[in-house]
Design brief:
- The chain is α+β, with helices and mostly antiparallel strands.
- It has three domains: 264 residues, BirA Bifunctional Protein, domain 2 (2-Layer Sandwich); 39 residues, no CATH class; 95 residues, Anticodon-binding domain (Rossmann fold), CATH 3.40.50.
- The chain contains 13 helices and 21 strands.
- The strands form six sheets. It has a seven-stranded mixed sheet.
- Strand 4 and strand 5 form a beta hairpin.
- Helix 2 packs across helix 9.
- The longest helix is centred in the N-terminal third of the chain and has 20 residues.
- The two termini are 40 Å apart.
Amino acid sequence: MKNKMEKIVSLAKSRGFIYPGSEIYGGLANTYDYGPLGAELLRNIKNLWWERFVEQREEIFGIHTSILMNPKVWESSGHVESFVDPLVECKKCHKRFREDHLKDKAKCPDCGGELTEPKLFQGMFKTQIGATENRGAEIYLRPETAQGMFVNFKNVINTQRPSLPFGLAQIGKGFRNEVTLGNFIFRTLEFDMMEIEYFIGPKEGEKYFEKWKKEMWKWLIDLGIDEKKLRWREHEKDERSHYSDRTEDIEYKFPFGWGELYGLAYRSDYDLKNHSEKSGEDLRYHPEEGEPFFPHVVEPTFGANRTFLITLLDGYNEEEGRVFLKLHPKLAPYKAAIFPLLANKPELVKKAREIYEDLIKKFPVAWDERGNIGKRYFAQDEIGTPWCITVDFDTLNDKSVTIRDRDTKKQDRIAIDKIASFLENKISGK
Ligand code: GAP
């Protein structure tokens, strides 16, 4: 019997959500490529996040900064010194582990073999600019998008003139030379982050931390994620990142156990102060009245790929021999699929094509005329398409179609000219 994770991995591969990276060359461990449906689902997650936290918020500004940054950024931010993991290797099976992740630090958790002394391992990927490999041109791939927002703090203040509290938000790739990987897309070498740096007054940390806890939770509930599989967990002092005075994670109950989904950190004025000191630029906030000061920062950070993984895990349902992915309609790669009842009846195909060609201008919709109607429903259920629309012989007379719901399997008749507004209302939750 496959467990849920194995089922998801095989569904993701067979239906074009996620493929192993560089597969034709034997793959590259812990890298994945998103296929046509996966690319759509990932994009929908990011768009929905951007809509909610940037477009619909007066005080949060979107930003899009470079992955490659001056190496001094990572010295000032503390990453060169502190973004390191203690690595141990089993002398018997040669597997590597992060020592701080092990309960028993003396024995290999896989084979019980003796472990080596821990060695510090830099978590940032290094590369170099230019053809020669001289040290001066050595740079890093960013491990978090946050620093792009801190180094542009002054630019945004000068151009947007925001007053506190305000936020900067960014979606982009982060890269980490992780020691322990695995569990499909849970922990990979590169991943998409959706981060907000929320700048506040020096005494407002507690208040905004609590506010963001509520907002992060609500985002997941609105995506339809099962609340029973979510919990908050506060980091112990020695577990927190070097920049954080307080961190809490939202954890999800994955098939392999509770694991970090998102993080919320109170970064105080750590980053702005350090960048100001090391760059010589004044990164203080100058209020209309009173002395300039370094704003404090509360940072809600959301992993896009982990969001993707939980939408598949949470949405995966098996019922009476059918598999259906109960994805939120806003996330579903296709909002509807259109079929002619019989593919060998040109009058049905013609009408169904007309409907399809009209709808595809407004929504991502699928076309299917293969096999019988049952098989088509089955295929669309598996990829999470919320509605299937069938053109039959009655359509030619009554100008209506059958619309079938993915979750309830209930079928209704609906007039052709009402399909678009039906979908629009359903998708927006009206
Ligand atoms: N700027 C804050 C920061 O980087 P983090 O908790 O280290 O915080 C943010 O990372 C989020 O990115 C995590 O909550 C998780 O969702 C995701 N994430 C972190 N490492 C990851 C990895 N190796 N693969 C996939 N997602 C990862």
